Amino acid sequence: MNERADSGMAVRREVLGDDHVDRAVARTTEFTRPFQEYITESVWGSIWTREGLDRRTRSCVTLAVLTALGRHEEIAMHVRAAITNGLTAAEIAEVLLHTGAYAGVPAANAAFAIGQQVLAELGDDTAL
Predict the structure, then answer these.
(1) What sequence ranges are listed for the domain Carboxymuconolactone decarboxylase-like (predicted)?
(2) Is residue 111 within 8 Å of residue 123, measured between CB atoms?
(3) Distance of alpha carbon 92 from alpha carbon 82, whole angstroms
């Protein structure tokens, strides 16, 4: 690995957790290796390591974009990451509500359902 990949892997582990990253690495094949290297180096090592936004803000932006694009398969992971990055359930709800105003109610509705499930799994009383 190079320095950017090493930094990316460190941030990826800090934000997503060792268990998630270990599962992703274990599932890596020769076919998926280039993609795993790309996201580790470029997304986590070049974008998430930049000083322009803190991790809380990056989590807000990420949740908003995933919601707007209907990338439901990624929302749960990034709700967990947002909690890791210091957002509260109320702040996550505000991001999803705000996104709904601009990206549409169906997108926000789906994201709220996923977020509520994850927060309940994490023991957050507001989700119960």
Answers:
(1) 35-115
(2) no
(3) 8
